[in-house]
Design brief:
With 214 residues, this protein is an alpha+beta fold. The chain has two domains: 82 residues, GMP Synthetase, Chain A, domain 3; 96 residues, Ribosomal protein S3, C-terminal domain (Ribosomal protein S3 C-terminal domain), CATH 3.30.1140.32. 42% of the residues lie in helices and 28% in strands. The strands form two sheets. The protein has a four-stranded antiparallel beta sheet. Strands 1-2-3 form a three-stranded mixed beta sheet. The termini are far apart.
Length: 214
Amino acid sequence: MSRIKKYFLTQAMLKAKIDEYLAQNFYEAGYSGVHVVQTGLGSRIHIFAERPALLIGRRGSTIRKLQEIFSKVFGFENPQVTVSQPEDTELNARIQAFRIARAIERGFHFRRVAFTALRRIMANGAVGAEIVISGKLTSERARFEKFSEGKVYKAGEAVDELVDRAVAVAKLPKGVIGIEVIIVKPGKPPDYVRIKEPHEVSEILGHEEKTEEG
């Protein structure tokens, strides 16, 4: 393996470890992702969360702890940590998955939570959305229920361009409930089709007739 490949593989693994650490420890903050940039002066780590205040802490106390962890545990030199809220939180699959998990842990019925989340996602312009909740939902036997609306792509170019997917778990006394959220963000997928209005068809036909006469 070349040095370049080894470097990028190491960086990807390091980012995955950081992502897992933040997802486990800042679940309540609605953690949604991290961006790491290595510079000559040190490392810049930008964290995205639904509720940044829970990551910043009182007078920046949590930020300082994170900087120490990133330095001692993850080996970053002079880490500078910033936190902000991501754009389009309602169309962020990870934020929605964590919201659903927290609501189920607080005792809300999973169907009510799923339908509420689905309506909110679609109301914010999503092309489609799917929520799968699995585990011991109503009895001792594990099963799953799927809630979907609109177009949901599972393969093809649209998945890379428009689809955001995330998983989360809700920890209950009777066991763990798994949540998977898939959101197809606004855009034109490869199979996009728009049916023309009657007046548009009339204009096209009229233009063709004039062209033939000419």
